[in-house]
């Protein structure tokens, strides 16, 4: 693969991102049996509290009916709660409960610990510098301003 072959580079990036994502998901299986769709909702509500179920569905690229089922299950588990919006009583906003936030922190810690150990044990300082540059470049690829600035939080 060369930098002059965008098709091959694209395939390599997609493959590595998929592998990293799959490995991070495996790490969270040791913490919880909460499905990945619910973990995504936990992350989304942590960064953007007060979304409605319809807004969550759009943000997560799923059908509203699917998101309603996910949110209902999460409410039953005590991970999220629904509140009436102050500015519009017809609007039901979703927020993480203390239990939901605690679970999200456990998942994040487990995943971050795995990455940190791998970085410390399998990569030299020079290689870690190259990875730091790659994070910024991948952030640019997806338009992620936090990654570009180097402040992206590992989920």
Radius of gyration over C-alpha positions, nearest whole angstrom: 18 Å
Proportion of residues in β-strands: 5-15%
The helix content is 55-70%
- Average of per-residue pLDDT values: 91
Number of separate helices: 7
From the structure above, extract its key features:
single chain, 155 residues, mainly alpha, two-stranded antiparallel sheet, 2 strands, globular
Describe this structure in words.
The chain is mainly α and 155 residues long. It is 68% helix and 6% strand. It contains seven helices and two strands. It has helices at residues 6-29, 36-47, 53-60, 64-77, 98-122, 125-142, 145-149, and strands at residues 80-84, 92-96. It has a two-stranded antiparallel ribbon with strand order 1-2. A hairpin with a 7-residue loop joins strand 1 (80-84) and strand 2 (92-96). Helix 1 crosses helix 5 (98-122) and helix 3 crosses helix 4 (64-77).
Quick structural gist:
By secondary structure, this protein is mainly alpha-helical. The chain is built from 7 helices and 2 strands. Strands 1-2 form a two-stranded antiparallel ribbon.
Layout of helices and strands, plus pairs?
Blueprint: H1 6-29, H2 36-47, H3 53-60, H4 64-77, E1 80-84, E2 92-96, H5 98-122, H6 125-142, H7 145-149
Antiparallel strand pairs: 1-2
């Amino acid at each position: 693969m060369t930098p002059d072959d965008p098709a091959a580079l694209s395939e390599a990036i997609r493959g590595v991102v998929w592998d990293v994502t799959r490995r991070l998901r495996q790490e969270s299986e040791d913490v919880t049996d909460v499905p990945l769709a619910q973990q995504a909702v936990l992350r989304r509500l942590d960064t953007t509290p007060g979304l409605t179920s319809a807004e969550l569905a759009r943000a997560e690229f799923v059908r509203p009916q699917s998101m309603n089922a996910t949110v209902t299950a999460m409410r039953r588990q005590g991970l999220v709660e629904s509140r009436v919006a102050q500015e519009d009583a017809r609007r039901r906003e979703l927020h993480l409960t203390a239990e939901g936030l605690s679970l999200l922190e456990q998942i994040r810690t487990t995943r971050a610990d795995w990455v940190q150990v791998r970085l410390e044990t399998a990569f030299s300082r020079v290689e870690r510098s190259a990875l730091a540059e790659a994070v910024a470049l991948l952030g640019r690829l997806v338009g992620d301003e936090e990654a570009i600035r180097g402040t992206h939080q590992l989920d």
